[in-house]
Amino acid sequence: MTREEAMAIAHSDPEIIVEILLKLSARIEELERKVAQLTKDSSNSSKPPSTDGPTAKPKPKRRRSSRKRRPGAQPGHKGHNRESIPAEDVDLLHDVVPETCEGCRSSLQPGKGGAELLAGYLRHQVIDIPPITPHVTEYRLRQVKCGCGTITFGTIPQEAKSGFGSRITALLVYLTACHRVTRRGCQEIAQTLLGMKISLGSVCKLHQEVSQSLEASYEEARRALSDQPVLNVDETGWRSMGKRMWLWIFVASNMALFTINASRGSKVLKGILGKVYTGILCSDRYSAYNAFHKGIRQVCWAHIIRDLRGIKHACRSPDAVQFSKWTLKEIGRMFGFWHAFGDEQSDRKTLVLKTVPVRARMKRCLQIHEHSSDREVRTLAKGLLKAWPHLFTFLEFNGVEPTNNSAERGIRPAVQWRKICFGNRSEKGEVLTARLLTATRTCLLQQRNPFEFIVDSIEAHRNGLTPPSLLSAPR
């Protein structure tokens, strides 16, 4: 269209111009929304940090003072040095005697020329590992001939039938569960570092044996989950046999349980926690949690903050700017009181009282903007008003955090594992993944050694003994 044609249309029929402007306005709004979506990152949306990529905008750094500071620890910083191993646990001792005096430069030979060897000394230790060689136990199955003429061979002990000891089995599985080493990687580590030849099939077989040894401990933890007073729950995508699955995590104060399910709905929660959960459920605002739990909840504030930053980032309307800035400002004040409480600068009663006006202003902001012409502002304001009874549980109850970070931190290693293994290829693999993640993550929460727990589980399984418990750390 030329300028002359546009002028002719404008003079002949103004309604056409109005129609064109409305279409252009809608198109511009749509393009602005798409640009905002494309430029979102982990700080203003629910996208994981791994999706930001190397071209992501770096986080703003704190303003430094004009005085230049050298990198590293600053003067007055308390150092963290490696503690020396007790003398009785040292394998080899070397006494290093000085040869020359630092003062007069004369030769130092204790007992000669007045030189005397004193009792005191400084300690310097070097830690190393010896060459690793497998410890091989051979069972000779002797034969005995009976008086009837029958020859009978001895049988392999139950704990030795695998052909691989409990510690080497636990090591290969520990590398997979905690350090995301592939099965082929376990095979190469066994050969290059341990000097032990093992087939890829044997590695997979050992993993399945460990899965069986963890079954009783996993089921015990699963049954005890519904009795926990506070639970943080989260879920993430998973792949199994080419199908879309979901990996769920349930985190209590001293345990974490994983499960893989084809559903992302509330029926998974009912299957794990029962039809009614009497404790406090902490999660994001996903609808499955709303449908399942009608009791006391805590909605994750980290998700809310990211949603607000996303609206502020898009900056599509005056309402979006005003709503996001106002709400984020009040949230900052609330968290200031919360951090003061965490630093023991105030008690819980003071925390609740000081946040009363903050909550009132925040609610007023939501009520003003629940009828906003901006769709995203309106949706978030209505959603937060609907979730209002579940936003401030952390202010009144012990053991409840304002965010769902414990579940997100717990599920992050599983997400890293997924990026390497691309999920599972069988139902047995799904079960193995859930049990390994449950056992290792729970041990870390309880400050137990996950490797030793796997060793104990294997030995109990091979010898028909009671398996170790995941419910609490042994005293």
Question: Could you characterize the architecture of this molecule?
Answer:
The strands form two sheets. The chain has a five-stranded mixed sheet. The chain starts with a helix and ends in a 12-residue tail after the last helix. It has a domain at 301-403. The chain is built from 16 helices and seven strands. The radius of gyration is 32 Å and the shape is extended. A hairpin with a 5-residue loop joins strand 1 and strand 2 (151-153). With 475 residues, the protein is an alpha/beta fold. It has helices at 3-12, 14-38, 166-179, 183-192, 200-213, 215-224, 266-273, 287-292, 301-314, 318-342, 348-354, 356-369, 375-386, 405-421, 427-445, 450-463; strands at residues 143-145, 151-153, 230-240, 243-251, 256-261, 280-283, 297-299.
Number of helices: 16
Give helix % range: 40-55%
Radius of gyration: 32 Å
Count of DSSP E strands? 7
Distance between the termini: 84 Å
Which regions are unreliable across 5 or more consecutive residues at pLDDT < 50? none
Give me the strand/helix succession. Answer: HHEEHHHHEEEHEHEHHHHHHHH
How would you classify the helix and strand content by structural class? alpha/beta
Quick check: average pLDDT?
A: 87
What would the principal axes of the Cα set say about the shape? extended
**Spatial strand order of the main sheet:** 5-4-3-6-7
Percentage of β-strand residues: 5-15%
* Largest sheet descriptor: 5 strands, mixed
